[in-house]
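Quick start: what a row looks like.
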Amino acid sequence: MQLSQAFVKTAAGWLLGLMLAVAACIVAINLVSSTVASPQQPVRDYLAALKRGDGGAALGLLNASVPGGNAAMLDGTALQTAASKISDVKVGDHEPRGGKRVMVPVDYTIDGNQLHTEFLLERTGTEWLFFGHWEFVPSSLPTIDVTVVNASEANLNGVPVNLPDGRNSFAVFYPGQYEASLSEEFFTAIPVRTSVTGDHSSQTPLNLLTRTTDTMNEAVAGKIKQYLDNCAAEATKQQRLQPDCPFYHVTNTPIEPGTIKWQVTEYPKISIEPFDGGWEVAPLNGKARVTAKQIDLFTGQVSTLNEVQDFSFTTRLDIGENSITVVPQVSY
């Protein structure tokens, strides 16, 4: 009887331990199934790969094909920059989508804007008897188009990229933000950006509207000023009222030799705009003053000539890699 009671107590202890072990296993299985073996885990791994700038890992996880186009955005600094703009990420509960497929929603913020992306995954097998194996349903990466006026290069997410004939198409990962910019010595463009939220999201082209920099404008203005000052000085030296310059004075009154003096009083304002694949300086308008001693034909009296003449001319602008040439176009 005593042996029987001892056996029962021992058996009860073993049974209790077994039940606790089974319960612990069930809890562990559920925990693993809802975390590392859940459909959300590949999504978390994919987002982490984007943050690291690991394009190879991201592409393998996403199970996506790469469309035709430039691949400069698919790895390294460019990819890290795209993902660095994402914040407040919330991976939601998966939702059935028929068969073995589920949708995993992700909500996040880019530049203060609330955005949403949905990832479609499929259960492709079972691991360790209990845990589902989830993979992204195959898809294709989206692309963004970048254009630039009168240039063949720009920056996209801080990386120099080629834009043959002023345009190119780039395969990109999502979600992420992509910013095109142009900042050179002579030319610049206001940065433009777009957020890519999915493989089928429609993207507005990133169009860079190139304009000349202050350095370029000041350089051209300096060359124009130098040309006009030299012209005025040469006209004074040659004592000509109608010099080979944009400005001139016409009179029938005799001028006392050695008294003609030209001076530019208002220099043209410089405006440079893109035109026909190049750059064109808008017509240049200014004022020049001519002074001299003039002699009345009838009385012989000497008086002072003091006239301000409006003038206008055009110029051709030739831009080399590190040089600017201004060629005035003056009709005499």
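That is the whole record. The radius of gyration is 38 Å. Residues 39-140 form a domain with the Nuclear Transport Factor 2; Chain: A, fold (CATH 3.10.450).
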